[in-house]
Amino acid sequence: MFRSHNVGRDDAWEGIVIKKSRGMLDGSNMYHFVEVRLDDGESMKVRISRRLWKSIEIDDRIVKRPGADPARE
């Protein structure tokens, strides 16, 4: 099971992408998500930018540092 998580500016985590998804949750805007397996074994689903979503694949590592947006490592 995973936990859903809104990315905060001060959050810090890193992990491996295990699933990509997207959806029109409000009917007018497309949202892009990845499910990430963190280094401690826990999984979480986070919303990311379209640009990052298009540039990553399954098994890529992404990192979120405090004060920055998630990025491919």
Q: Any overview of this molecule?
A:
By secondary structure, this protein is mainly beta. It is built from one helix and six strands. The protein has one helix spanning 50-55, and strands at 2-5, 13-23, 31-38, 43-48, 61-64, 71-72. It has a six-stranded mixed sheet. A hairpin with a 4-residue loop joins strand 3 and strand 4 (43-48). The chain is globular and about 35 Å long. The mean pLDDT is 89.
Question: What is the gist of this entry?
Answer:
This protein is mainly beta.
For the biggest β-sheet, the strand order reads 1-4-3-2-5-6
What percent strand?
over 45%
Helix content percent band: under 10%
Low confidence ranges: none
What is the oligomer described by this structure? Answer: single chain
| Structural class by secondary-structure content | mainly beta
Query: Helix count, per DSSP?
Result: 1
Tell how many strands the DSSP assignment holds: 6
* General shape: globular
What pattern of helices and strands is seen along the backbone?
EEEEHEE
Terminal Cα span: 25 Å
**Mean pLDDT metric:** 89
